[in-house]
Design brief:
elongated, 6-stranded mixed beta barrel, single chain, 12 strands, alpha+beta
């Protein structure tokens, strides 16, 4: 009888200790930012191991958070503003780039995910200089970009509605390896350039010259077997050669293999 009472007494003490322990353990009231070695307690971890566990943001990567970390320290994702309007081209009368930006409104907390990219760049070209004069027509390498850029082309430099222009078909003969590794949001279109593929490139105002009705490097006057040069706007390292196939009124290539002169 005495032994049973003693066992019950020890059981009561153990239960009481456990209740007090769990009241003190966990991450309630002790969420820490960044990496903090002092933000620690003893409790069940998220991997179901009892022992030392942490309540700092680093524990998500090291997998040693206390069991209640997700609820006691709820994650706050990064919140950003809307994208700004695209800036003008950095330089007029030549292939250049434009920029848009956004800012952080709420920093992330209790999360291993940082903020997304806050700046994007895309290739562009303006056809007037800083004084408002039209750029002189030049011959040579064709400059191309994604058809997405044509969405902003609704009127020409004089404010008149755009005409449809024309389309040139080319067979890609060569391109640099840099085209394949471009992975920025506004340069991924370069990955669809492939040797041996037939691609369509639209010639539209304002890239189309008002007097010559052509685009720089479009190959209109070139012989069918003449090797012509092109360059991707937005990445000068992405360039190559092509041969003219034919000129058409409308482009008929798949969207991923359709581009525009710029």
């Amino acid at each position: 009888m005495g032994l049973l009472v003693e066992q019950n007494a020890w059981l009561f003490v153990a239960l009481l200790f456990g209740i007090n322990h769990f009241a003190e353990g966990g991450c309630s009231g002790r969420c820490c930012q960044g990496t903090d070695g002092t933000c620690v307690t003893t409790d069940w971890r998220m991997d179901r191991v009892y022992g030392t566990c942490y309540c700092d943001e680093r524990c998500i990567k090291t997998k040693d958070c206390c069991f209640d970390y997700p609820t006691a320290c709820p994650a706050q994702p990064c919140v950003t503003s809307e994208w700004s309007h695209w800036s003008g081209c950095a330089q007029p009368c030549q292939p250049s780039f434009r920029v848009r930006r956004r800012s952080i409104q709420i920093k992330p907390h209790n999360s291993d995910h940082g903020c997304p990219m806050l700046e994007e760049q895309a290739g562009c070209m303006e056809y007037q200089d800083r004084q408002g004069d039209f750029c002189a027509q030049t011959q040579g390498t064709a400059f191309i970009t994604t058809t997405e850029y044509s969405k902003g082309r609704t009127r020409d430099l004089y404010g008149a509605p755009l005409n449809t222009g024309f389309c040139m078909e080319f067979k890609l003969e060569s391109l640099t390896p840099q085209c394949m590794v471009e992975n920025r949001p506004y340069t991924r279109w370069m990955q669809y350039l492939r040797e041996g593929y037939t691609i369509c490139v639209a010639c539209q105002p304002p890239a189309m010259r008002n007097h010559s009705r052509s685009c720089q490097g479009d190959g209109t006057l070139a012989e069918r077997n003449e090797l012509l040069h092109w360059q991707a706007v937005g990445s000068p390292r992405c360039r190559g050669t092509w041969r003219k196939v034919q000129r058409q009124e409308y482009c008929s290539c798949p969207l991923v293999h359709s581009f525009i002169f710029i």
